[in-house]
Amino acid sequence: MSSSDASNISPLLEPVVQLVRTRYNIDLGVYRRRFLARRLRVRMRSRDVDSLEAYGQLLVNDGSETRALLAELNINLSYFMRDQSAYEALSERALQPLIQRRLAEGSRRLSVWSAGCATGEEPYSVAILLAELLGVRRADWRIQIHATDLSEVSLTKAEAGRFAPSSFRDLDAPYVGRYFTLAGTDYLLDPGIRSMVNWHRGNIKDRPRLSEYDVILCRNVLIYYVYAQQDAIVDHLLHYLAPGGTLMLGLAELLPKSATHRLIATLPRMRIYQSPLEEGA
Ligand SMILES: C[S@@+](CC[C@H](N)C(=O)[O-])C[C@H]1O[C@@H](n2cnc3c(N)ncnc32)[C@H](O)[C@@H]1O
Predict the structure, then answer these.
(1) Does the pLDDT of residue 4 top 80, yes or no?
(2) pTM for this prediction
């Protein structure tokens, strides 16, 4: 692929995008085409492959190459309000209505599970959104945010609440000013927000702390798994999603087909889905 054929990049990439979608249930289509083309070029160079066709073949024959490509796309990092518009949608279409519903029921409880939370930016982002929505009324609520991950190292980092500037690429400056203080070259998260999250090491497939969660985020985790396992993970998560609860996946992740009839596609482009409310609720 020469840099001169920028106008033709899109159709050239389509076969690779299609291949990764059908074989791995991962949607590379969410990435900007120029960005994707650049990253593909890096991988092709490192595997000594000079056509997209040959690279597609490599993806078919060598599963480890998909992992390498995903790593090249930086999918294995975490940052605050990752894919900002998705978090805005979560706030408007899931958290706000949930708060209203609870108030109408005379309850002030809500629960969130961040499954595969890595270094904590994801559950802390939800804590910040809830703090924004509830303001001083937050003290009247019982909010449980449970964050789980396989990696002890990541959880220790998460709990410390200390973040490098690279964690802020999707977070607007006013949030940084409101919820963080500068400590050397890093930023320390407000202790009030930190105390909203509980951390547990474990596999997503383990039984979580609560029998039901109002919101489950499982973002950029399914991409590590083959389709059958993605299916099993989502099936497991749905056992713990409350009626009317929200499931949010990563933008590159497609809901496994077996789950589509069990959920309402609230905002499928943002990978936000809802379980139906029980009759009479
Ligand atoms: C790329 S990070 C995603 C972090 C965050 N969810 C986000 O979107 O920014 C993926 C995380 O999933 C965790 N993970 C992968 N498989 C897991 C499993 N079976 N159980 C628990 N955590 C898992 C990894 O340890 C890693 O920290």
Answers:
(1) no
(2) 0.86
Asked whether the predicted pLDDT for residue 141 surpasses 80, the reply is yes
What DSSP line would sit under the chain, residue for residue?
A: --GGGGGGHHHHHHHHHHHHHHHH-B-GGGS-HHHHHHHHHHHHHHTT--SHHHHHHHHHH-HHHHHHHHHHTTTT---TTSSHHHHHHHIIIIIHHHHHHHHHHT--EEEEEEES-TTTHHHHHHHHHHHHHHGGGGGG-EEEEEEEES-HHHHHHHHHTEE-GGGGTTS-HHHHHHHEEEETTEEEEPHHHHTTEEEEE--TTS--SSS-EEEEEE-SSGGGS-HHHHHHHHHHHHHTEEEEEEEEE-TTBPPPHHHHTTSEEEEGGGTEEEPPPPTT-
**Domain residue extents for the chain:** 3-72, 84-274
Top-tier CATH class for 84-274 = alpha beta
167 lines ligand 1 (CB under 6 A): no
Residue to substitute in 221, 230, 231 for testing ligand 1 pocket (most ligand atoms within 8 angstroms of CB) = 221
Ligand 1 atom nearest to CA at 218: 6
Mean pLDDT of 195-209: 95
| Banded model confidence at residue 12, pLDDT cuts 50, 70, 90 | confident
